[in-house]
Amino acid sequence: MRSTDNNNHEICIATECANCGKGEEESNKLKACGACKMVRYCSTDCQQAHRPQHKKECRRRVKELHDEELFKQPPPKEDCPICFIRLPSLGSGSTYYACCGKVICSGCCYATVYDYQGNEVDNNKCPFCRTPAPDSDEEIVKRTMKRVEMNDPIAIYNIGVHYRDGRHGFPQDYTKALELFRRAGELGDTEAYTNVGYAYNNGRGAEIDKRKAVHYYELAAIGGDVSARHNLGIVEYRGGNIDRALKHFLIGAGGGHGQSLKKIQELYSDGHAAKDDYKKALQSYQAYLGEIKSKQRDEAADEDHRYY
To answer: CA end-to-end span of the chain, whole Å?
Structure first.
């Protein structure tokens, strides 16, 4: 069965071999093209024979599928496990605790803690599990390594940062850092994939490879990392692909990335974006700020001079 999409491109909902015409009633072994999923074949020989005819349409559909995945609305950050308000998209608005593996928002990290009688108690503990804070670099590393053994992606990413920056007693080793970032990304840490992209973009732990950098930025952006999303917008902008850049910046602004909002404002000022684009970006950015706002977080930001 065949139909067309909105761009009048033919889409196959295959019920027969695209090469020889053998139907499902003749063979129950029809397999879809692994790339575009549009056509099916009864054998590898038929697939190879049909490749010259199918190649152009296959590539077009693969690109469409890729863009559908890339530009769909990414999942929002999870909620803080204490106040149940959405976590800020940038790391400065929250803290990871290796004692329990929880990410806590800045408001809950710095909030005053009281006992059942209303008396203020020691706040130098994890806000979630109440484990006392580590008192040395050695204790920080020990706790983090325990989480690494449990395949905690954030802990693995943090050890990668220690290697990248040469801190907490770790030697500076970009290659080891890249290895850990890639591992953490495979386990679901989108920020780790962003850092893999940085590594390939800047030649830190690997040879400079701009295509690989974009690939990992895309993986991170699809997972919801706004910094990677902004980077993709910059790449497209520098390549002259303004429409694609604008799409990235719009998603980034909606996810709380202030620089993406600023770029849309610049595009609007230069005549490359419509007024409605800037209005939409501003509204989505303000909506994000409303979702993450709390009195405790505002107080923590004022006290610690943090921005999120």
So the answer is: 51
Rounded distance, CA 148 to CA 162, Å?
A: 13
DSSP 3-14: EE-TT--EEE--
Going by C-beta distance under 8 Å and a sequence separation of 6 or more, which residues neighbour residue 298? 107
**Spatial separation of the C-alpha atoms in residues 30 and 239, rounded to whole Å:** 41
**Pair 184, 192: CB distance under 8 Å:** yes
Provide the residue type at 173 as one letter: D
Instruction: Name the residue among 203, 200, 231, 206 with its Cα closest to residue 217.
Output: 231
pLDDT tens, 150-196? 999 999 999 999 999 999 999 999 999 999 999 999 999 999 999 99
Domains detected in the chain: 2-71 (no CATH), 134-304 (1.25.40.10)
Q: Residue 5 above 60 pLDDT? A: no
Structure tokens belonging to residue 163: 């290697």
Q: From its phi and psi, is residue 120 left (phi > 0), alpha (psi between -120 and 50) or beta?
A: beta
What token pair was written down for 265?
């404002």
In the structure encoding, which two tokens stand for residue 20, read together? 């020889």
What is the chain's mean pLDDT, rounded?
Answer: 89
Instruction: Identify the residue whose tokens are 């993406």.
Output: 260
Is residue 77 within 8 Å of residue 52, measured between CB atoms?
no
Identity of residue 237:
Y
Residue 250 scores a pLDDT above 50: yes
* pTM for the whole structure: 0.85
Query: Coil, strand, or helix at residue 134?
Result: coil
Among 144, 124, 152, 129, residue whose Cα is nearest residue 82: 129
Cα distance between residue 187 and residue 231, in whole Å: 22
Beta strands in the chain (DSSP E): 2-4, 10-12, 31-32, 40-41, 94-97, 102-105
**Cα–Cα distance between 43 and 20 in angstroms, integer?**
10
